[in-house]
Amino acid sequence: MSADLRHIDTWLFDLDNTLYPAESLHMRLVEERMTDFVERLTGFPRDDARTLQKKYYHAHGTTLAGLMANHDVDPADFLDFVHDVPMDRLVPDPALKAALKRLPGRRLIFTNGSASHAERVLQTLELDHLFEATFHIEAADFLPKPAPETFAKMIADHAVHAPGAAFFEDSEKNLAPAHDLHMTTILVGAHAAASTAPFVNHRTDDLAGFLAGARVQDAAA
Question: I need a surface site. Which of 15, 50, 100, 182 has the fewest CB within 10 A?
C-alpha cells in the first residue's frame, strides 16, 4: 500500500547512502580516507586506527566529533581530506530524479557531511537543482545528527514545521529525534525492512519507487 504523505510540505533527505544506494560503496572510499587520517594523526597501526575511528563514530556520532573532542583536530582539515575521493561510483538515477521532482513543497538536504561534499555528490547525481538548500555539518557547528540541538538548529535555520516534514535516512538512530518532533520518518536501504524501531513510520529499499508511489499533495511544478 502506498504511503499517505498528503500532509507533507517539507521533504528532508539525508545524503550519503540515502540518495544513492549503499551498494555503490562510495562511502567505503570516504571511510578509508578517515582511517588514513586517524592513522597519520595517531601513528597507530592501521587496524588500531580503524578501531579508534569506529569507536569515535559510535561514541560521538561522527569520527570528526570524536577527533575534535579528543585530539583538537581542525574540522576543515579533516573534511577536506576525507572527502577528496572520486565520484565515479555514483550514477544518476532518472527514476529518482523524476520521483523527487513530483514532490510538492520544499526539498532540503540534512547531512552530517560537509557543504562541499554535498555539492559534489548532488551535482554528480544530477539532483542539485531539485533541492532548495543543504544543512551540512558546518551549519550544525560540527555537532552531528542525531543530536537534538542539531535538529533544532536545522529547523530554526530553514523555518521547518516539523509535523509537516518527512525525513528520509539510512541511519535508524537519526530518525529517533525526528519522530520526537512529530516528523514522518522513513528508513531507507536494504536493511530497512528488518527494522522494528517504533520511531520509524515507513521502510523502503527503493527510494525512487517509494516516492513515486506515495500519495502527496498536488504534484510539484
Answer: 182
